[in-house]
Model the fold of this input.
Amino acid sequence: MTVRVGVLGATGAVGQRLIQLLEPHSDFEIAALTASESSAGKAYREAAKWRIDAPIPEDVAEIEVGATTPEDVPDDVDLIFSSLPSGVGAEVEPEFCEAGYVVSSNSSNGRMDEDVPLVIPEVNADHLDVLERQREERGWDGALLKNPNCSTITMVPPLAALDEAFGLTDVRVSTLQAVSGAGYDGVTSMEIIDNAIPHIGGEEEKMETESRKLLGGFDGTAIERHGMDVAASCNRIATLDGHLENVWVDTEDDVTVADAEDALRSAAGIDLPSSPDQLIRVFDEPDRPQPRLDRNIEDGMGVAVGGVQETTDGLQFNCLAHNTMRGAAGASVLNGELLAANGYL
Done:
């Protein structure tokens, strides 16, 4: 059965990626688009400054954009995808949930709330069931599900594979993040050309806290944070798409490069339409992965790993994922598929 969906924040960078992924989706039908009051009432073609390297889908171009309120979304919409700025999302998303809508959100607000599942389906799909607690405690007919920050999503699948095989005690990561992660107006050309910016506001804390929640245990009611220590340094560089990260991990058990690569290659996927056939691709070449060459593996939904080396207490490796596909819009769509598959719509 086709699921009717809406997109909040449809004119922004992630909103456009959502439309790109949802329009051809076999299970989802776009039925509502919302944006700011200045865009409300316009055809989507007029409201959005389209920046995707493919034409606006014809079926979407003439949809009238509504205001971002539950009253502007049809009652028969089954699932909402949110790409709102976090300040707006914190106010608006609960209103949609109270009105009975199920929301799969890319926005950062609420990710660390105890009753809000933060999910990468291939890693911690079982955390989805904290929605039962959420509905009971908040009195919602709807529900709110979050995907993590784009930099967190890049490193957590490899971490999950290594943790399952060898146990993790410490993680240190230094990121080289693409400019698209800041949004179209987030970094000016004069800031980033011939430059690197060794600070991204709030990003380090997100990586340090979200990863421990994602890899934590779930007892059916509460999520217990993973006990590993995580330290992050986040940097913006002049690539368009694709977050590259240098990661060091300390492990409980001794680990060799060969064993680590086997564990990474064996990372299990999940039977959902947007999940890649191979979640983690391991490169033997020491100079891979690279953003320009490898960000689109598995249609932008895979994670690339390379440069695996032994250290005194564990491993060092590099990982890469497409930050607006795997790290944002694609992650929300995948979570929407998980909601549908588990009967939450």
